[in-house]
Amino acid sequence: MSFIPVLLATDVLIWLLVAAAAACCWYCMRHDHLAAPWARVFRSPAAVGSTVVLAAYLLVGLADSVHFRPALASKDPKATAAYAVDVQSLLDVLLAHLRERTEKTYSAPLATRSFAKEQIERADGKVERDFPRLRYGGAHLTDEGARAGDVAVKALAGLAAAAAIWVLAAVALRPLRRRSPGVPWGAALIALAAILAVAGPAFWLSASYHVLGTDKVGQDVLYLALKSIRTSIVIGTVTTLVLLPLGVALGIMAGYFKGWVDDAIQYLYTTLNSIPGVLLIAAAVLMMQVYIDTHAEMFPTAAQRADLRLLFLCIILGLTSWTGLARLLRGESLKLSELEYIQAAHAFGVSGVRVLSRHILPNVAHIVIITLVLDFSGFVLTEAVLSYIGVGVDPSTTSFGTMINAARLEMAREPMVWWSLAAAFMFMLVLVLAANLLADAVRDGFDPRVRIGATGHSPAGKGSDAIAGAVK
Amino acid sequence: MLAYILRRTLYAIPILVGVNLITFLLFFVVNTPDDMARMQLGSKRVTQEAIDKWKAEYGYDRPLLWNDKVAGVEKATRTIFFEKSVKLFAFSFGASEADKRDIAGEIKTRMWPSLALAIPVFLVGLAVNITFALLLAFFRATYVDFSGVVLCVVMMSISSLFYIIGGQYLVSKLWHLVPISGYDVGLDAAKFLVLPVVIGVISSFGSSSRLYRTLFVEEMGKDYVRTARAKGLAETTVLFRHVLKNALIPILTGVVAVIPSLFLGSLIAESFFGIPGLGSYTIDAIQAQDFAVVRVMVFMGSVLYIVGLLMTDISYTLVDPRIRLQ
Hints:
The structure holds two protein chains of two kinds.
Chain A: E1 3-6, H1 9-30, H2 32-41, H3 45-63, E2 67-70, E3 88-89, H4 90-94, H5 96-100, E4 118-121, E5 127-130, H6 147-179, H7 185-206, H8 221-257, H9 259-274, H10 277-294, H11 302-336, H12 340-347, H13 352-389, H14 400-410, H15 419-446, H16 459-471
Antiparallel strand pairs in A: 1-2, 2-3, 4-5
Chain B: H1 2-29, H2 33-41, H3 48-58, H4 74-77, H5 80-85, H6 103-138, H7 143-156, H8 160-174, H9 189-220, H10 223-230, H11 235-256, H12 267-273, H13 278-287, H14 291-319
């Protein structure tokens, strides 16, 4: 099958981030003093387990970040290839059976019949209202009574396959276990077992059922949930690309140069902070919507428009949330700049920029890392709220926020359509919980003494910063 | 003290000017009033006359910053910047663009439902979180403490949207204890407010309790606590008489900052529960793309934030005599 690759802006950024993270990993591994805190982090079973879970999410997200437009099948071999308008990702290809099998409307998880009654014409010409059979869900069954048995058999087969993969993974881990015995590999294997125990049966069953049901327009909910993962990961990571340079540069400059630089930077972040975050984001997104509407010609495909909106949301989130990091770094570099080794550097005539990059930056790196990991889960949760208000991602982008927003109206149905809400809930809870657990371990591992409460997310965090400003 | 407050109040002015400039840039420079008119009027094929009429009606038919067509002071005042941004300083908010009602009047009536929800959430939440954190600190390094912290981490990993949706489903739809949404004046409002208050407390429970527990445990490692134990005080006395008082300083000064913002209400809870407060007003304005209201709410939000900062500084000197304001 031929195709042309499509480079979405967020794809490029996410792969760049992966490359940068890999480079950092490699660099840290070669330097003992950099590897030591990470070794402390990964002595905690919770951290190892949640890393495995996050890696699984990341894998799905990355598979969903390779986009292309497949060639349309044409009968004439000499004709120039025409390419489909809709952009697909690697994940779409892997889950083609989920993507293409859409029903008419709602259906419950593992159901064989639709959720809503319809007029059905029988073979003998009589018309009656009944729940119609689904086009794909359980279509292979001639006797619907056999569904429970069929589901059980397929789930067991999936479990068996998962167990086989798990044993393979356990064997593959053995050399690693021997090399670094301090790491609780058991936790990794338990997390892997949990993931496989859920994913194996789900994958096996998804070939012939809608494991998590279908939504209003008949799309498979499992597919939607898996597609949402990329949106969450983009929001959680690309945002840091904006936040990091601003927060780090302005934070350490304010603390180190003091004087008018400090005043200007403090003014900047107090001003930005004083605007209620959600409102600032809402205002910026509204303005962007007007811009996109009036410049429709700039966006050739719907996917590109949606992607640009996602990128813009990341930029806005980054622009509004660098203040927390900058404030922490300002305080820390104020303290550092009074220490002897910095004064020694001054005495040797080292330039300001070099002091900042060689002496201050490495000594505040732990704060940066802790804040980044802590912020990830915050951004994932924020996206859901923003999408609910209608100022989040493009309505055509699948995300947990849009899923929840759609499910809200389903609450009122009788009986309730609970599965898409439950799916969004579980996928989000596992992601955020894993990120929070890892963040805790990172915080303990990197600096057991420094307590960085809730950076900027809780009112108390903001308050204590205000105190710092007053005490100064 | 008075001089300090005065100086801090004066310091707020450049910040408000900055906020105003940012909102002005966002609302009028990124997109011209023409774009906004097109957006408001809906369809793609709007005539220029319709746009001009809309602009004249809402006062956007002026130059942005400088009006050459009139004389004297009016060169600066008959502009969009003066009319729409500078006037906010005088708390003259104008009318909303969607239904042409007076914004200041709306704020005055909608403030009360917001407060009726926000104040109970704030007070009950504070009491519950501090009590729970104190409990965990008392049982620190035991299974009680561990499972409490796990509970907090799990609870802070759940989006507040789920608490609201789940609470509405269980309490209102399944058990029929309280109405799903709505509001009433006077004491009748209570039955509408119970569920939102409980859910508001629950959704802030995880992160706040954990933070407070950290503060308590940190305080318990200090020397004066060891002294108190060494002289034979019971653990409960140590906890309540010494640790609680000292750990309350960062907690209370921290929460003082959010008190003024209580006026603005909660965006999500109010719109879910149909409470006619400022939060749902803002959400409606965002969804109707009513820029006049959004602009006013941004301005109000920053004013209240600055008041909160000032109150934090003052409260800090009141509870901690070591701090002197210069």
